[in-house]
Amino acid sequence: MVIKLVVREYTLNVVSAYAPHAGLDEEVKRRFWKGLDEIVRQVLPYEKLLIGEDFNGHIGASTGGYGEVHGGFGFGERNGGGTSLLDFAKAFGLVIANSSFPKRKEHLVTFQNAVAKTQIDYLLLRRCDSELRKDCKVIPSETLMTQHRLLVLDVGISLKRRKRIARGKPRIRWGALTKDKAQELECRLSAMGAWRSSGDTNTMWSATADCIRESAREVEMPSSVNGDENNNLENRVENGVAAPGVGVTYETLRTHQDQFQRTQSHATPNKSI
């Protein structure tokens, strides 16, 4: 069984298999290794590979000529099944994770019955990914089956922090508005006559919002390009909400606009048809 996990920029292929036990025919064993060979070859070189399997073989306590594969912390005596596993790992540039960390005997034994304690379950990963393995051991108190024990591999994957992509228009950070800048902003808005726009409501408010943006840039208000509703000008100005610290400016703007409209209405005589 193969499971492909995609974590950000990493693709992790997890392979689970069960090797034929020692009593089966050699042809059965040959077909097993051929099938596993085909699965591993399908994994792309830049992807991560993790193989967890009951190999029904003993790799032994010492490296014995397989130093690039065997970490030197195995258990028991090597047999034919263990040699096949070591040859397979060597051919594909793999390392046996649970032979790479010095552990007590009870943290090496993966299979135990009434007459024997052995190590037949192994976790393998590519040698180029050796830095991912942080620890590997058997947990004696956890039993998966009647005789097999839980083998755990700690893997550490460093994920790159994604950069936030700036989108939309620059937005004014009203939270940084000081009292002095608020007064300066009020003076500029008064000088620009932001309330003297005419037309329908949308047109008038759009013109007013443009005046506020331009004035904010002139008083050097800090800006950002994020979509934070609490700090952006679009939501505060275009929705008619006064920004913190500019209540006086905003109220003054509305008062002037109302006064201007009343003046215009009185100055324009009613026409009768």
3D structure, described in words:
The structure is a single chain. By secondary structure, this protein is of the alpha+beta class. It has 6 helices and 11 strands. The strands form 4 sheets. Strands 1-2-3-7-4 form a 5-stranded mixed sheet, covered by helices on one side. Helix 1 (26-41) links the parallel strand 2 (10-18) and strand 3. The longest helix is centred in the C-terminal third of the chain and has 21 residues, at 247-267. It is rod-shaped.
Portion in strands: 15-25%
- Count of individual beta strands: 11
Query: Mean of residue pLDDT?
Result: 77
Shape: rod-shaped
**Alpha carbon gyration radius:** 36 Å
Give a short overview.
The chain is α+β, with helices and mostly antiparallel strands and 273 residues long. The protein contains six helices and eleven strands. Strand 8 (133-143) and strand 9 (149-155) form a beta hairpin.
Write the layout of secondary structure elements.
Blueprint: E1 2-7, E2 10-18, H1 26-41, E3 48-54, H2 80-91, E4 94-96, E5 111-112, E6 117-118, E7 121-126, E8 133-143, E9 149-155, E10 171-172, H3 179-192, H4 201-218, E11 223-224, H5 233-238, H6 247-267
Parallel strand pairs: 2-3
Antiparallel strand pairs: 1-2, 3-7, 4-7, 5-6, 8-9, 10-11
Helix pairs in contact: 3-4, 3-6
Index terms:
single chain, 273 residues, alpha+beta, 5-stranded mixed sheet, two-stranded antiparallel ribbon, 21% strand
